[in-house]
Design a protein that fits this description.
5-stranded mixed beta sheet, Lambda Exonuclease, Chain A, 481 residues, Nucleotidyltransferase, domain 5, 17 helices, alpha/beta, 13 strands, 3 domains
């Protein structure tokens, strides 16, 4: 029996982003470069189900996951449009059916990757074409100002937003786009040597970008330029930064990135690095937090999606070169921050620079911890005053072509200190740390497994701060050359 040919709302949103990516997905699944469902997206899916469970308690008369399907028409070649509606309710006054779409975000998104209005409009059009008389359209999303205080109050947690007018404005265009998606899906062949994403910055690329644009290298002009300048280069078939003409108009930062790739040697400002290092005060504390955030807050006093810190690692480098290591990892959610605050105040002295990587995160957590623990507010304020972001050195003073334009520690470390690798660890990034911590505190996880997870989390966070120690030493040695 041949497989049923359908266009779901997910398919439609892929079409909205890139029509050729959509065609590959539907017609050449063996070629389609589908992204792996990584831990971050798995986390979003779990959170979506959790939010949906609260949304189901908002109304007594709602029907959940109602399926609607409609044939694409005489020229559809057997293709149908399909949508699963999160919630529907009958308006007793009008007799029409209202549609509710549940999102775990804290607002209504209309970007390329997540267009909630096009999403619910697709559902509305599909439902109406199937014969349903649709009344109003609503998006249910998280209230970003909700603070947990005891049991979760679904009426405070969620906002129900009437988007009927916006759906009506989009309906005609979305209906035409749906028919165009069907037309494209039924094409026997399309030119897959390129797609329109080639004119976009890398963060806006479709999943099949490198299948559809084989001439574009891993690190391309798309990571350096945007909009008009990017289009000018692509129109000239200039994809590699090394091919950018010398007389091409660029900002100073863009020119540095292009020059770096052309020279293929590091660009180092030793005077600036020396000035930075000379300003640091011993003992130097190398510090890193791990945290978890969810749309449904886990602990009283926390807002939706607020980061709850559950772990830290701290390496203390003394002036004589000796190193001490301190760490903390909570065993449950309720007592996590209290124990952490006590540990931090014990291990970070009143004198000495605090080194982090990407200071916005650590400083933000310190401000929040100071509010949650007023007795430590001055401690966290002073800690923030002493913070220096080591990432800044690798954003402006030590640039390496192999960083590929990034100053992430995951990009810098393998290039400068390849002997220090996250690949050998069982926890390799922050998202994995979140997932493993959730697993560790789950009552259904065995005590033996909890201890294994605990050790894995400690070793991961320890490498984060030890890596900063070694990069600092790398810079010190560099200045001695």
């Amino acid at each position: 029996m041949p497989k049923e040919k359908i266009i779901t709302k997910s398919d439609f949103l892929i079409y909205c982003r890139c029509a050729k990516d959509f065609w590959l997905r539907k017609n050449k699944p063996d070629v389609y470069q589908k992204q792996e469902l990584n831990l971050f997206f798995q986390k979003l899916i779990r959170e979506g189900y959790e939010v949906e469970s609260y949304a189901k308690t908002l109304f007594d008369d709602a029907i959940f996951q109602k399926q609607v399907k409609v044939d694409g028409g005489p020229q559809s070649n057997g293709v149908t449009f399909y949508a699963e509606l999160d919630m529907v309710r009958e308006d007793t006054e009008t007799g029409k059916t209202d549609i509710y779409e549940v999102k775990s975000s804290s607002g209504i998104k209309t970007d390329l990757a997540h267009n909630h209005i096009k999403d619910i409009t697709f559902q509305t059009v599909t439902a109406e074409r199937s014969g349903m008389e649709v009344g109003k359209s609503f998006i249910v999303h998280i209230n970003k100002d909700y603070v947990k205080d005891g049991e979760i109050n679904q009426f405070g947690l969620l906002k129900v937003v009437d988007v009927t007018d916006r759906v009506q404005e989009e309906k005609e265009q979305v209906s035409l786009m749906m028919d165009d998606a069907l037309r494209i899906m039924n094409k026997e062949d399309v030119d897959i040597t390129h797609c329109e994403c080639i004119f976009k910055s890398a963060g806006q690329w479709c999943d099949s970008f490198h299948v559809l644009n084989k001439d574009v290298p891993e690190y391309s002009v798309n990571q350096i330029f945007q909009k008009a300048k990017l289009k000018e280069l692509i129109d000239q078939k200039i994809y590699d930064p090394v091919d950018v003409p010398e007389d091409f108009t660029m900002t100073e930062i863009q020119r540095d990135k292009v020059t770096l790739q052309k020279l293929q040697t590091p660009m180092i400002d030793k005077d600036s690095i020396r000035k930075t290092l000379d300003a640091l005060v011993f003992p130097i504390y190398f510090f890193d937090y791990e945290s978890i955030n969810k749309p449904v807050p886990m602990v009283d006093g926390y807002k939706t999606n607020q980061h709850l810190v559950f772990q830290y690692s701290l390496h203390k480098l003394n002036e004589d070169g000796s190193i001490e290591h301190f760490e903390y990892l909570a065993r449950d959610m309720e007592t996590s921050t209290q124990g952490m605050v006590e540990s931090l105040r014990k291990n970070i002295g009143p004198i000495g620079s605090v080194i982090v990587w990407h200071e916005t995160f650590e400083k933000g957590r310190n401000v929040e911890l100071g509010k949650l623990h007023p007795e430590a507010k001055d401690f966290f304020a002073e800690m923030n005053r002493r913070i220096y972001d080591l990432k800044k050195v690798f954003q402006k003073d030590y640039l390496h072509p192999s960083f590929k334009g990034s100053a992430s520690i995951k990009k810098v470390l393998p290039v400068l200190l390849p002997q220090l690798s996250y690949k050998s660890l069982n926890v390799q990034d922050g998202t994995m740390a979140m997932s493993e911590f959730e697993r560790m505190i789950n009552p259904e996880t065995s005590e033996e497994e909890k201890e294994i997870i605990r050790e894995n989390l400690l070793r991961y966070c320890e490498l984060d701060t030890f890596a900063m120690v070694e990069l600092y030493r790398f810079l010190v040695d560099l200045l001695r050359e």
